[in-house]
Description:
By secondary structure, the protein is mainly alpha-helical. Helix content is 34%, strand content 7%. The protein contains 2 helices and 2 strands. Strands 1-2 form a two-stranded parallel sheet.
Amino acid sequence: AETLRVAYPPKDLVHVRAGILDDVNEVVIGDVGWHGALSNLLIFHWCHRPLAQKEEELGAAYDAGDAAASHNMPLVLAVSAAA
Length: 83
């Protein structure tokens, strides 16, 4: 990755320490789809979606987790098998 710089930064610009995130598996912005490994997922962000849709999808995810747990199956395995 290349270092990007601001051409004319303000004199009082605060220095922020940061690092590179793996945007394929760890941090996902899932607006158009995602093809990473669920076991590596840390954060999933829905872009520009209505709150009601997000609530419904989160509910479905929790229901799936409960269903997998009731069969002593890790969620990652259940989702991978269904995919």
